[in-house]
Amino acid sequence: MTKPETTRDGARGDLIARVAGADIALSEGSEQVWLEVIRKMDEVYADLIVYESDLEKKNGELEEAQTFIQSVIASVSDVLVVCDESGAILQINPAFRELMGHDEQELVGSSLIDLFVAEDRAEAKTLCAAATRETTSGELRFRTSDGPSDLMAINRSPLFDAAGRRAGAVFTGRPIGELRRAYEALHLAHVELKQAQSRLIEQEKMASLGRLVAGVAHELNNPISFVYGNIHTLDRYRKALARYLAAIHSGVAVKEREKLRRAEDIDAVIADLEPLIEGTLEGAVRISDIVKNLRRLSFGAKTPREPVALAKVVETATQWAARSKKAKARIVTRLEPDLLACGHSGQIHSVLVNLIDNALDAVRDAPAPLVEIVTHAEGSSAVVEVIDNGKGVPDALRSRVFEPFFTTKTVGEGTGLGLWISYSIVHEHGGSIEIDAPPSGGARFTLRLPRATD
Ligand SMILES: Nc1ncnc2c1ncn2[C@@H]1O[C@H](COP(=O)(O)OP(=O)(O)O)[C@@H](O)[C@H]1O
Ligand SMILES: [Mg+2]
Q1: Per-residue pLDDT at 20
Q2: Which ligand sits closest to the CA of 357?
Q3: What is the mean pLDDT of residues 311-320?
């Protein structure tokens, strides 16, 4: 734009305006008008300059923003498709173009629904027709140039124009096939692991049942063969005695009778009868003991729990154990009189008899055999400690003493079931049983049972 120039010409004061190269002389009257026009033009021109630079700046900013948005869209790995209200594609991102394997020109303008595989088209229609303002989603596959795509999680959000009217929808999608396959593999692995675990538990149960049965058979075998043998001998004795008595009853002569007495070894038979019967009885008692022990195992049926006065149970258990062991040990009890445990008094009693039995066995050869039984409350637990100054349990055996049939005692002295049964009973009660060594030597069994209040 050429700018009109105005100058004053010498002393005449005439205004000469040069517009587009032509000098026009103006008279004083119109001069004022022209000055006004020129001033206005000046102003307009200056404004225009400002507007233009403003516009250029805004344009620059706009271009920058657009490049930024484009590069963001291009770098998004999810597919992005913008459609108009009729479902025709307006814009796509490079991820979608790559997925479909078609040029942008081929894709833009086509109907999005047609780009899904035939089986998913009905679902695609529902998704595209959703009239909500919220985002809707579905799992669909595209029909790409290489065949059906991976399963994609598609989200659809409605698009609004500047006036707030619906202008179409934006679709984003990402493949979930991989994720789903990984999830399915994980799920399968989890199921298999659970099966393997329950098989293992089953096997372990069977194995421990097998151990139990083998142990029971072994334990019973001894007294049974003992009883069996004794019965055979007794039968032999019975026959000899019957023959001898028959001879007496038939009134044989003394000489004949004495001969028979020696031949049948009657004196030895009679002398042997007592130990034989005693031994048989012992065997029977042993068998009944084992059976009784096994019976205690069938406490699966839940018996109702009740408050158990521990002091009383400890006292009777001590008496029982001491009597059956004919113990020579000193037994000291320090009992909290009002301490109550929650459980089954019969079962707690048999646990205590087991522990005191073992303690009495352990101190048998000690110089000053001593067994102490102490009870006290400890938070929500009622605690019983059975402490002895016996031979103790070597560290290596600590974890084994609770195993079924683990015993260091000779056959006939121990079954190895006592602690195992005690352990099971205590755990049924929701308590615990632990073994350690008191500083003075020997062994200490600590029994913790849930405490009851009145
Ligand atoms: N107080 C104790 N002192 C030393 N050893 C013990 C004590 N209590 C248990 N044991 C060991 O634990 C083993 C298992 O005990 P238990 O299950 O009662 O079976 P059992 O008394 O029939 O042998 C015992 O044979 C013994 O070796
Ligand atoms: Mg025992």
Answers
A1: 45
A2: 2
A3: 88
Distance 410 CA to ligand 1 centre (A): 11
Considering the domain architecture, whether residues 198 and 246 belong to the same structural domain is answered as yes
Mean pLDDT of the chain: 86
Q: Please say which residue of 175, 195, 213 terminates a domain.
A: 175
- Structural contact between residues 386 and 444, judged by C-beta atoms closer than 8 angstroms: yes
CATH code (residue 378): 3.30.565.10
What are the φ and ψ backbone dihedral angles of 222, each rounded to 5 degrees?
-60, -60
Site to substitute for ligand 1 among 407, 422, 444, most atoms within 8 A of C-beta: 407
Residue that terminates a domain, selected from 241, 264, 295: 295
The total number of structural domains that make up the chain: 4
Q: Could you please report the per-residue DSSP string of 180-214? A: HHHHHHHHHHHHHHHHHHHHHHHHHHHHHHHHHHH
Q: What is the extent of the structural domain holding 9?
A: 5-71
**Quick one: 96 and 43 in the same domain?**
no
Domain presence at residue 301: no
> Which of the four pLDDT bands, split at 50, 70 and 90, describes residue 328?
confident
Of ligand 1's atoms, which has the minimum distance to the CA of residue 390? 3
The pick from 419, 424, 445 for probing ligand 1's pocket by mutation, whose C-beta has the most ligand atoms within 8 angstroms, reads: 419
- Place 12 in a pLDDT band, splitting at 50, 70 and 90: very low
- pLDDT over 50 at 429, yes or no: yes
Q: Which atom of ligand 1 is nearest to the CA of 414?
A: 22
Alpha carbon dihedral 36, 40, 45, 50, in 10-degree steps, equals: 140
Q: How far is the CA of 454 from the centre of ligand 1 (A)?
A: 35
Nearest 5°: phi and psi at 429? -80, -5
